[in-house]
Predict the 3D structure of the following.
Amino acid sequence: MSSDAADFGVNGIDALLPQTQCTRCGFPGCLPYAEAIMRGAAGINQCPPGGSATIRQLARHLNRPFIELNPANGVQAPPRVAWIDASRCIGCAKCLPPCPVDAILGASKFLHTILTDRCTGCELCVAPCPVDCIEMHPAPDDIEAIESSSNRRRFDAHVARDQRRRDERERELQRKKSALFEPAHGS
């Protein structure tokens, strides 16, 4: 780790990333990628959504040379958002859990919709769709750029909610296991 990276810190690196949480960098989100950059375990050129602008900012703040985006992580492209074809959506809800910023509204057996003003274009909702009704479209011109801090807050809330659900399921499972193995009353 360079002294410049140590001076700037993980939070400084993370703040420069677009917070799309797309995993294209090879890490499960922007913060783990920032931590890897800090440790020297990842290059500064692995974020396709951030592209050249983010690489330049990282290079400047970390006192490193600019290097082109690593093509193994994808290509830089104009912002895109997910779109659901209502005629094909079966309401399976498989797109909901992978959305890192909760930009999809829907419930099982109901039509889903994308909140385009919240969608980061991460594409994580596309693969789980069993009927291929989710497509990526260019972001509408009238959508203002979402601040990365807003993406971070929604991602953190999503992760916390998922953890609470896992914890609740584990407690329920333990309660049921305990009930199965309790000695019968009056035995």
In short: The domain at 78-182 is CATH 3.30.70.20 (Alpha-Beta Plaits).
